[in-house]
Amino acid sequence: MNGTALASYPCGLPPCLFRPPAPEPDRIRRAHMKHQLDWSSYETAGQGDAYAGIPATGGDFAKAVAVCISDRSCLKKPKGVMCPSFRATDEAAHSPGERVKVLKDALNGEFGDNPFADPRIRDALELCVGCKGCKRECANQVDMAAIKIEVLAQRNAALGVSPRDRLFASLPRLLGERRWLASLVRWRNRSPWLARLGERWLGIAAGRALPEPAAQPYAAPAARATAPADTADDRRVILFVDTFARHFEPEIAAAAHAVLDAAGYQVEVLAPAAADGEQRPLCCGRTWLSLGQVDAARAEARRMQAALRPALEKGWPVVGLEPSCILSLRDDHLKLGLGAEAEALAKQVYLFEEFIAREHDRKRLQLKLKPLAGGKTLVHGHCHQKAVGAMKSLRKVLRLIPEFDFEFVEASCCGMAGHFGLEAEHAEISRRMAELDLLPALRAAPDAPVLANGFSCRHQIREGVARQPRHVALLLQAALA
């Protein structure tokens, strides 16, 4: 090769020996997306597995997505929770496995530089109700409920938060600060034109009633004058009154307090820490979290942690009433990056029925109960109760009532799922989910009492079959001897 020919190549070398550095692909530059949740528990997921199909971007979040092994179990309809949206639509696109495929495409760079703003991501997760059924029933426990929170948070960062989502998420704060909101809800429910206006402006389904706040929120009873100051630590209980019990059904919180008191426990209702500048009621942050407003949810979680610090240090159990709230403390809060205190709380917090069952198993329960009239009671479990196996505790507690006859309804999600069933575009599919199993089972026994521990479940049942379901705390209070 002569000198003239060599001079025509960069560095005087032929192309077979010289390769200019390729520009860094966008997909590599995006590998370290800013996570809104902590996905570090998936750090080693799929490593060394040539078939894991971990997307090129997204870091540990991508590994959480890739735990799906595409065995298509979510496209079957056995008894269980998974997957309400597929069951109701019969469309594979609304199953966890198909959602994973879309998310993998997005994280592999196929949706451009801003994948979470792409409508294909929105459409894939549109009907996910966050039931957590797949986390329990999927072969590899894909956590689509948590994945959806991350996706919504990323969409919020890219596109902003809609007024409706901001309203629904902020209800715990608004209900405490603006008491006139209760009157507005009642007016809206009785005024068709106002309901239609709400649908037009905010997308809240005009054909659905909104839950109406109680005339007065829950107020903790004064401490018993006879209660000894040196009550043993193993007889002390912290009662967490969530937003739904506090503002909508305060009788449930009162019933739980009465039952725990009758069982011989010194009950303390959780209140804000002394250093809390706001002093408004505490909230687990569930409404913010479910709508992808993670920073606000994290702030609420930190308020709870501050208030619970003394109880956590002393090992006092924390007892709550609403499955979605209490199980968020055990699950979703561990992804908020809140450290050891969140892990300690997750081990120390119980649903009301879990605590009663635990104390009975330990032979420490001092609870005298009498038979109840009314025939066989139908029991509907909240999806999150089913997802963590808490229905066993509920069964144990119901068996404590003498001669009590009950039957668990085999059903998937009720379809209300918090705000989901109230949204104009989801109201119809919400009803279809309820009509798969739950509402037909209730209609088949029109005179049977109904028990449902989930706030949304009770609302769906009231609308669907005009029945008044009760929380287990009310049932136990009625059975107190």
UniProtKB/TrEMBL annotation:
Organism superkingdom: Bacteria
PANTHER family hit by this protein: ANAEROBIC GLYCEROL-3-PHOSPHATE DEHYDROGENASE SUBUNIT C, GLYCOLATE OXIDASE IRON-SULFUR SUBUNIT
Entry protein name: Ferredoxin
Natural source organism: Azoarcus sp. (strain BH72)
